[in-house]
Write a structure and sequence with these properties.
Blueprint (H helix, E strand, L loop, with lengths): L2 H33 L1 H16 L6 H14 L6 E3 L1 H8 L7 E2 L2 E6 L1 E7 L4 H4 L7 E5 L2 E2 L5 H8 L6 E7 L7 E6 L1 E2 L6 E5 L3 E5 L7 H14 L4 E5 L8 H8 L7 E7 L5 E4 L11 E5 L6 H11 L3 E5 L7 E7 L5 E10 L15 E2 L16 H15 L1
Parallel strand pairs: 11-12, 12-15, 15-16, 16-19
Antiparallel strand pairs: 1-18, 2-9, 3-4, 4-5, 5-6, 5-7, 7-8, 10-11, 13-14, 13-18, 17-18
Helix pairs in contact: 7-8, 8-9
């Protein structure tokens, strides 16, 4: 290339390059203005609050509350953590063993979403749907689920006080519960008549699939021709255990879909050898059916392997991890969630039952009726199919 040609190329290219750079900068600035207009509003609110509130404002407290509000607006499982809380999570420290046996969600206040079988909370008559107004006289209105769970845990033998509201009751109900070290709950079995087996799975664990297989084999020897799995108030256990248990009943197709920000959707599918348990199946579910139990129900019902009886499930099917911030605080945030085999959201939506059966509204101290309408409906449906 001659010198004259090089000069010509530079003269032609320079304006084009400059135009591209300036255009890119202007484009990013415009995009930022369109994407983050609320930051300007936040700045105005912050300035007005610190400059005009009736008394001097604690800026650290103000910003801490703002960060809490931002995280709480995501989902019930995400939370803003203080420096001390973030250190505790990062260290891998386990929760104290003392537990009262409730799982929480957020709905204005903290709300009981599930009550563990045989736990102090169950013995005290606490039920799914109860609002927790106070924990040890501390209001839960601005308390995250993450924080609430940790306030309920402690040393076995110590007590914790809860102030509860049920339904439209005007007067709160105060209970004092003694924390216990809760042992793993085994699978419970019984027969309904001579041909329908009923299995209660109160929590999921790594050994749940093998325990289910062994229990079903024993029930078949007793004459069971169909199976009811009771997953009501089943909220605990690793999500993977729910998918592993579904493999017992689903021979082919998708078990779940997994969405992660910035990555391709992952399909979790049945594999060769899955689905060898072919008994007719029904699942009992309610708002306390969440997590692993909910993934199990989504996989099995999504492949038309079983019908769901009861109430809409709780909608808790996400995974969380710690995102550290420069000042030592952190976000405990959902980064992935599972969908049904058909691609419908589970997290914060739940699963709609095929056969809806409403639970009675009971005041504190009133025992559940002896008749289990949800179980009866499932047994009736299975027995009808066996005769047809």
């Amino acid at each position: 290339m001659t010198t004259r040609t090089r000069i010509a190329v530079v003269l032609i290219s320079a304006p084009i390059l400059a135009f591209a750079v300036v255009g890119g900068l202007l484009g990013r600035a415009s995009a930022a203005q369109e994407t983050y207009p609320h930051l300007r509003v936040f700045d105005d609110v912050f300035s007005l609050t610190t400059g005009n509130y009736v008394e001097p404002v604690d800026v650290d407290k103000l910003m801490h509350g703002a960060m809490h509000g931002l995280a709480d607006s995501l989902d019930a499982d995400s939370a803003f953590l203080s420096t001390d809380e973030a250190k505790a999570v990062a260290s891998g420290a386990t929760l104290p063993p003392g537990d009262i046996g409730v799982d929480l969600a957020r709905q204005y206040y903290l709300r009981v979403i599930a009550v563990r079988d045989g736990s102090p909370a169950a013995k005290a008559g606490i039920r799914s749907g109860d609002f927790v107004r106070l924990i040890e006289r501390q209001p839960t209105r601005e308390m995250s689920v993450w924080e609430g769970v940790r306030k309920l845990r402690g040393k076995p033998g110590t007590s914790v006080s809860l102030t509860l509201i049920r339904g439209n009751a005007a007067d709160p109900h105060v209970v004092s519960l003694t924390r216990e070290a809760l042992a793993p709950l085994p699978i419970a079995t019984k027969m309904s008549g001579a041909d329908i087996a009923v299995i209660r799975v109160a929590e999921f664990a790594d050994q749940t699939p093998s325990a289910l297989r062994a229990s079903i084999a024993g029930l078949q020897k007793r004459g069971a021709k169909a199976l009811v799995l009771d997953l009501r108030n089943t909220a605990r256990g690793p999500l993977a255990a729910g998918i592993a248990a579904a493999r017992l009943f689903v021979p082919t197709g998708a078990l779940a879909l997994r969405d992660t920000r910035g990555a391709s959707r992952q399909t979790v599918s049945a594999a060769a050898g899955d689905g060898d348990l072919t008994m007719p199946l029904a699942l009992l579910v309610d708002v306390g059916t969440t997590g692993a139990a909910e993934l199990f129900a989504a996989a099995v019902s999504g492949q038309k392997r079983a019908e769901l009886f009861g109430e809409r499930t709780g909608g808790r099917a996400a995974q969380q991890r710690l995102f550290k911030l420069p000042d030592g605080s952190a976000l405990w945030m959902s980064y992935a969630w599972y969908l049904t085999p058909a691609g419908n959201p589970i997290h914060e939506h739940g699963l709609q039952p095929d056969v809806a059966v409403e639970q009675p509204d009971l005041e504190f101290g009133v025992e559940l009726p002896a008749i289990d309408a949800t179980l009866d409906k499932a047994v009736e449906r299975l027995r009808g199919r066996a005769k047809s």
